[in-house]
Amino acid sequence: MTTNTGGSQNGPRETQTKAAQHEEIDYLDREVNLLKPSTPFMRDHLKIIWTGFIVWSLVTFGPPVLTYVAPELMTSQLPVIGFPAHYFLVGFVSPTSSLVLAFIYSRKRDQLDQTYGIDHAAAMEDVNATGRGETAAADGGVTE
């Protein structure tokens, strides 16, 4: 691991990887603010969430709004399937897009975890080896 020494103009500047920076952050001392995240991981994760939310709201609420704004276009028969466009968009595209967005979110979250060096497999190996995982303090803590 390298450290972020700031460097000088004459020498090369050493920087930490995102995973190394993530390991040094004490998340319990950080403020959780959805509008201004305090850590790089939280900022990157929030970008994924907001992007998905914007796409979801456009796909979910777009067809009804378009039907209200342009009823002639949205209630016209589609040539291939033979029923109105708003039926197809509301009945097929909206639910399907929710499934697609869930898949995209899981892939993006896996990429983010990999970028920051978060490994969920190690926690699962601990659960499989001991028969129990780490218990949260809210669950009574770890018994000895």
UniProtKB/TrEMBL annotation:
Sequence intervals crossing the membrane: 48-66, 86-105
Entry keywords, A to Z: Membrane, Transmembrane, Transmembrane helix
Start and end residues of each Sodium symporter small subunit domain: 39-119
Residue spans of biased composition, Polar residues class: 1-19
Annotated stretches, region: Disordered: 1-21
Record bears the keyword Transmembrane: yes
NCBIfam families per UniProt: Na_symport_sm
Pfam families linked to this entry: DUF4212
Domain of life: Archaea
Name under which the protein is recorded: Sodium:solute symporter
